[in-house]
Design a protein that fits this description.
By secondary structure, this protein is an alpha/beta fold. About 45% of the residues lie in helices and about 20% in strands.
Amino acid sequence: MPWACRRAVVLLVLAAVGCPAAWAAPGKPLLPAATEEAGRAEDTLAIGFAGPLSGASMAVGRSMQNGAQLAVDEANRRGLRIGGKSYRLKLISQDDRADPGTAEYVARYLVGQRVIGVVGHWTSGTSLVAAPVYHAAGVIQVTPSAMSRKLTSLSYPRIFRTIPNNESIGRLAADYAIGKLDVRTIVTIDDRTPFGQGLAEQFARQAQAQGARVLGRYSVSDKTSDFNAPLMQARKQAPDLIFFGGLDWQAGILARSIRRLKLDTRLMASAGTVGLPFLMRAGADANGTLVLEPGPPQDKMPGWKSFRQRYSQSFDSDIDLYAVFAYEAAQAIIQGLRQAGSADPDAIARAMHRMRFDGISGPVAFNQEGDLMNPSFTMYEVKDQRWVPVERFSGLPR
């Protein structure tokens, strides 16, 4: 179907669900929509979830959705009173397919449903496209996974993230490669997205500052499975390490391609790679791959044991690492509701900028831009086709 036709169809669908009404007063915070689920229309407040519920990143998307749903279910069991009145929370989930074009329509749909806040999106590209839509409608956005520094540098007052940004990830990953692995020569490959390219650039800058040489910087499409061109160049350059900025499914293909072309080099991949999808795609070629991820190892998280038990009782699926950060993102919105004593997103956001609570992964608090304060990190390595934590970091690199 031609693009213009697809766009027309989507707009007709959005009109049917009420998006035009949501945009009648741009910039004005929306009050919660009336629903009939709780028996009385005014009793329900809606929180949105946006992420990949289909496609290559489906597993992590569904795990994040489950994390957000668990936070909502627990809040409902505990009870929520605002201004002397009881409310029930409802999670409205949408599949953005990890695609920026789809993410914009998803954001407009959720605005039309009058959500007070959204947990999402998975990638930086989708989050950056959706952010202006939420901002214009006065909706809170808390991403559990998008790391691009560009997102919080927008300086939108209702935008937050429950993980570090890619500047801190890139700098610490480079420090580890140079200081711990004695890497002296590097090639970077990125997927041209705000996340992947931004992370690779930050890694390269920090590596050079630490005395390493960047022999080549290459970019590929975020849809490709063909890494032959950059890897043929890398084989001539013989780097100590290849750093990849992109998603887990491509990293798995890259790991296999490196071994197939017999490159004698280590692979360090982006945050978001730790999990089963990479291991399944890379197979035995995954061994030796390094990834720096946000947060402590799961078994070292203060609330992990209880979270795992509650999650397993509610959902018959594996727990991805980012389910924890989605749970904390939903918790941040709910805590903001309680502390603000209001369903007004602006009041909730102001409370969120002041709050500090003990999350599953550790303390959660936000700086003025909405970035996570005092983050922690873990370096993982694949050994015998299993992810093994090899070093922990606290705070930001100097």
